[in-house]
Amino acid sequence: MVGHVRAWVVWWLLCAALWLLLVDRTPLDELLAGAGVAALGATAAVLVRARRQVLLRPRARWLSTAWRPVLGMVADLVPLVRVLVTRGVLRRDERGSLSEVPYPHVGADGQDTAHRALTEALGSLAPNTFVVDIDRDRGVLLAHELAPTGDVARSACPLGGDGS
């Protein structure tokens, strides 16, 4: 019980600080509204926290390759425009591709779960690639590419598949 109260207070402080940062006003009515919204946010956060099944354990070294999807947001604009012109303007019947990539992080521990969550988020960040699913039973990642590149693993698995 003490852990829930402590978590609620921490979340309330974070939500209240975010409110003040975004609103940037300190009249009493704004402070009261912020306190109420922060209480709602803290309550929601604690309820979600109580229902979690695993504590995520991301590794700091994963950040060394997490910059690639951010660059891909810009680099993938060229193939995206090419696909939009080819399929949208010229009406050519070209298709994207679904690919399976071996993916070993299928365990139920916090590290594998964090790896899957970050892989799905970062692997879908660039506009050409979308991580459709990670099949834990088969140990594969299913990704869709609008313009097939031949190296779907590089964009769909930005953290790498070796677990290091």
Q: How large a portion of the residues is in β-strands, by DSSP E? A: 5-15%
Which secondary-structure class do the elements indicate? mainly alpha
Form type: extended
What's the mean pLDDT score? 90
For the largest beta sheet, what order do the strands appear in spatially? 1-3-2
Q: Characterize the main sheet.
A: 3 strands, antiparallel
Tell me the count of domains.
2
What's the N-to-C terminus distance?
Answer: 36 Å
- Rg value: 21 Å
Write the H/E string, N to C.
HHHHEHEEH
Helix content bin? 40-55%
Annotation, overall tally of beta strands: 3
Uncertain runs: none
The number of helices is 6
Main attributes of the structure:
6 helices, 3 strands, single chain, 164 residues, three-stranded antiparallel beta sheet, mainly alpha
Quick structural summary:
With about 160 residues, the protein is mainly α.
Lay out the secondary structure:
Elements: H1 2-23, H2 28-51, H3 67-75, H4 77-89, E1 97-102, H5 110-123, E2 129-135, E3 140-145, H6 152-156
Antiparallel strand pairs: 1-3, 2-3
Helix pairs in contact: 1-2
Give a structural overview.
The structure is a single chain. The chain has two domains: 2-51; 60-156, no CATH class. The model has no long low-confidence stretch (mean pLDDT 90). A three-stranded antiparallel β-sheet has the order 1-3-2. It has six helices and three strands; from the N terminus they run ααααβαββα. By secondary structure, the chain is mainly α.
